[in-house]
Amino acid sequence: MAAHASIKSMALCLVMTMCLVISSVAELQRFDHPANDDGSLSFLVIGDWGRRGTYNQSEVAVQMGRVGEKLNINFVISVGDNFYDNGLTGENDPNFEESFTKVYTAKSLQKQWYSVLGNHDYRGNVKAQLSPVLKQKDSRWLCLRSFVVNAGIVEFFFVDTNPFVDMYFYDPKDHIYDWRGVLPRKKYIANLLRDVDTALSQSTATWKIVVGHHAIRSVGHHGDTKELVEKFLPILQRNNVDLYMNGHDHCLEHISSLSRWTGSKQLYSAI
Ligand SMILES: *[C@@H]1O[C@H](CO)[C@@H](O)[C@H](O)[C@H]1NC(C)=O
């Protein structure tokens, strides 16, 4: 009996330990980024950019440098599609230097960059783009699938929106997506939604900003991302997220849901 009981409790112990390990692995990685001494924060957001300087990327980079100087930015956010057309081929792909290091050369842009992945990045070697080796090549670079940055007045929730999009799985055309680390998809999405929900609900920041590659709503070329409207938007709404920032549609839009703007917080002055 005693032996039985102890085996049972050992088994229970093991199960609990496994659960603990699994849940701690699934939690979103967190970073702290200090705000300015007066509590303020400023940053630039860019997406859909890595073209080895062409398509006016270099011209935009110069203007970013000027604005970044004027605002004395704390960091830069990239909302994905970091390297066209097909992400990076490996850690040593020269596209990294040609599209990033050698383009964003202005002094004001020599800050931390926080990046998520876009669909074009998934057409290359995703693990290379996430690799710490890139940080050795350019110390500004940080790209992860999903993570949290606590910057005092604002908490940023970076979310990889690519696994949500059905088309990339069921109708990928002639593209090959690198889903290593994302499968099985259903489980991956369920864990991600749970982790984002938990992180948002635990946040005490004045502003909660979510960052992803795909638009939830858009009047642009790709339109709404219905999978995000169905599965992701309710979590953002439930947790009173103030702002969602994305790329993908190559179209400047500012969409507001009026019910969110009845409080005392005002973001319009900041935009
Ligand atoms: C670069 O910008 C100029 C001026 O806005 C525009 O006329 C031109 O089409 C752009 N070039 C590309 C390749 O997008």
TrEMBL record:
<dbReference type="GO" id="GO:0008199">
    <property type="term" value="F:ferric iron binding"/>
</dbReference>
<protein>
    <recommendedName>
        <fullName>acid phosphatase</fullName>
        <ecNumber>3.1.3.2</ecNumber>
    </recommendedName>
</protein>
<dbReference type="Pfam" id="PF00149">
    <property type="entry name" value="Metallophos"/>
</dbReference>
<keyword id="KW-0378">Hydrolase</keyword>
<feature type="binding site">
    <location>
        <position position="48"/>
    </location>
    <ligand>
        <name>Fe cation 1</name>
    </ligand>
</feature>
<dbReference type="InterPro" id="IPR051558">
    <property type="entry name" value="Metallophosphoesterase_PAP"/>
</dbReference>
<feature type="binding site">
    <location>
        <position position="81"/>
    </location>
    <ligand>
        <name>Fe cation 2</name>
    </ligand>
</feature>
<keyword id="KW-0408">Iron</keyword>
<feature type="domain" description="Calcineurin-like phosphoesterase">
    <location>
        <begin position="42"/>
        <end position="251"/>
    </location>
</feature>
<dbReference type="GO" id="GO:0008198">
    <property type="term" value="F:ferrous iron binding"/>
</dbReference>
<keyword id="KW-0862">Zinc</keyword>
<dbReference type="GO" id="GO:0005576">
    <property type="term" value="C:extracellular region"/>
</dbReference>
<keyword id="KW-0964">Secreted</keyword>
<dbReference type="InterPro" id="IPR024927">
    <property type="entry name" value="Acid_PPase"/>
</dbReference>
<feature type="binding site">
    <location>
        <position position="81"/>
    </location>
    <ligand>
        <name>Fe cation 1</name>
    </ligand>
</feature>
<dbReference type="GO" id="GO:0003993">
    <property type="term" value="F:acid phosphatase activity"/>
</dbReference>
<keyword id="KW-0325">Glycoprotein</keyword>
<feature type="binding site">
    <location>
        <position position="119"/>
    </location>
    <ligand>
        <name>Fe cation 2</name>
    </ligand>
</feature>
<dbReference type="InterPro" id="IPR029052">
    <property type="entry name" value="Metallo-depent_PP-like"/>
</dbReference>
<feature type="binding site">
    <location>
        <position position="250"/>
    </location>
    <ligand>
        <name>Fe cation 1</name>
    </ligand>
</feature>
<comment type="similarity">
    <text>Belongs to the metallophosphoesterase superfamily. Purple acid phosphatase family.</text>
</comment>
<feature type="binding site">
    <location>
        <position position="248"/>
    </location>
    <ligand>
        <name>Fe cation 2</name>
    </ligand>
</feature>
<keyword id="KW-0732">Signal</keyword>
<feature type="binding site">
    <location>
        <position position="84"/>
    </location>
    <ligand>
        <name>Fe cation 1</name>
    </ligand>
</feature>
<feature type="binding site">
    <location>
        <position position="213"/>
    </location>
    <ligand>
        <name>Fe cation 2</name>
    </ligand>
</feature>
<dbReference type="InterPro" id="IPR004843">
    <property type="entry name" value="Calcineurin-like_PHP"/>
</dbReference>
<keyword id="KW-0479">Metal-binding</keyword>
<feature type="signal peptide">
    <location>
        <begin position="1"/>
        <end position="26"/>
    </location>
</feature>
